[in-house]
């Protein structure tokens, strides 16, 4: 079966899908995006992802490419046409196509929309949840508006490549006080010795992950205490458990940081419970394809 992409009003074969060379997303990274997980045909946390997309667009004074009802129809259509029951849908909106000039183009230039979907094997994610992953730490070198989910991801790309070269799955950005911010494409969490979940406050220093938000709800359902506060690399290394969250992975245990084991170096039970409860909690904000 051939994959289908949506590009500015047309459903096209994935291998022929293309954007204009003067698309501002391509030239200036002047665009925003969302990635949603699809599980058993449900687009997970779809309503929350749309809310964050709305915020990203308005922070950058960009217009919706189509009205929101049509937008949801197109997202579902891409998922259906690609017959994705388990996988991901990728949504990108750029400020559109215009002669290269840094300042915004005229209001008549419409924002550009690309949507793709692909399948993934849930068994692979489950296996990763059993073994856990390693992370490395890197100094924060991004701008201070990482709360906006823009396609300008070069520092994230370089950090994650460095992690890969060191046999790790993620790189945690660390601020100048030695405090963990977030990963290149995930939010960072620890579980303290007394079982409290800790994650950095979602102010302007990190992206307010949708999986993070739903995981907080899930933790509250489990009666777990959640503290949104800064934590250091040292505190993380000495934590009872650590994990990362993102739509692409949901919850994955972190078993080592810069080569040092977290606790006994195995996936922890609180992370596992929360991963399970996440599924129940996410039903409330998910939409069938
Ligand atoms: N990344 N922090 C960063 C920097 C991210 O890029 C992401 C998501 C997250 C987690 O957000 P959410 O829970 O909404 O997925 C945190 C996506 C998955 C990506 O770039 O592929």
UniProtKB/TrEMBL annotation:
EC number: 2.6.1.42
InterPro entries in the record: Aminotrans_IV, Aminotransferase-like, BCAT-like_C, BCAT-like_N, Class-IV_PLP-Dep_Aminotrnsfr
Signal peptide feature range: none
Record pathway: Amino-acid biosynthesis; L-valine biosynthesis; L-valine from pyruvate: step 4/4; Amino-acid biosynthesis; L-isoleucine biosynthesis; L-isoleucine from 2-oxobutanoate: step 4/4; Amino-acid biosynthesis; L-leucine biosynthesis; L-leucine from 3-methyl-2-oxobutanoate: step 4/4
Catalytic activity: L-isoleucine + 2-oxoglutarate = (S)-3-methyl-2-oxopentanoate + L-glutamate; L-leucine + 2-oxoglutarate = 4-methyl-2-oxopentanoate + L-glutamate; L-valine + 2-oxoglutarate = 3-methyl-2-oxobutanoate + L-glutamate
Pfam families linked: Aminotran_4 (PF01063)
The entry's keywords: Amino-acid biosynthesis, Branched-chain amino acid biosynthesis
Domain of life assignment: Bacteria
Record family assignment: Belongs to the class-IV pyridoxal-phosphate-dependent aminotransferase family.
Functional note: Acts on leucine, isoleucine and valine.
Protein name: Probable branched-chain-amino-acid aminotransferase
The species this protein was found in: Ahrensia kielensis
